[in-house]
Design brief:
By secondary structure, the protein is an alpha+beta fold. The chain is built from four helices and four strands, in the order αβααβαββ. The radius of gyration is 18 Å and the shape is globular.
């Protein structure tokens, strides 16, 4: 018996990007809109087996906040990593290519959910692990 063909399931198209009751396109607050935007970009990412990532590791929350402020002001990710990161690899925070299972579980989940960006215009996420506070960006996926 030949295998059945899989038919793609199409998501419902509503303007708010989130399911539930209510009028499409309306949102009760800014957080809902941000969640919907991040959810829609997350769904578009293809599954990856490896990522090329950078991070900034800070032991203290206040230092992480300083680094975030610099990034939000438009500083390049690698420059901020050289200034603020407290790990051994201070080469702009580069971790190189890492396959699934090679990183801390919380770090890995956040990194694999992040879309690729450049150090000049980074898209980043914050995560706390046993090692400290991380600011993560992904340069490429494969």
């Amino acid at each position: 018996m030949p295998p059945k063909k899989k038919t793609p399931i199409k998501a419902k198209d509503n303007k708010s990007g989130v399911g539930g009751k209510g009028k499409a396109g309306t949102s009760s607050n800014k957080k809902d809109k941000d969640d919907a935007a991040s959810a829609s970009s997350w769904k578009q990412l293809k599954p990856a087996t490896a990522i090329n990532s950078r991070h900034i590791l800070c032991e203290k929350h206040s230092k992480k906040e300083e680094a975030l402020t610099k990034l939000r002001e438009g500083a390049k990710f690698d420059d901020v990593a050289k200034e603020f990161s407290e790990d051994k690899a201070r080469q702009g925070g580069s971790l190189g290519w890492k396959t699934r299972g090679a990183l801390d579980a919380a770090f890995e989940k956040a990194a694999y959910d992040l879309e690729p960006s450049t150090t000049a215009s980074p898209k980043f996420v914050e995560v706390k692990t046993a090692h400290g506070y991380h600011i993560i960006m992904v340069e490429a996926r494969r």
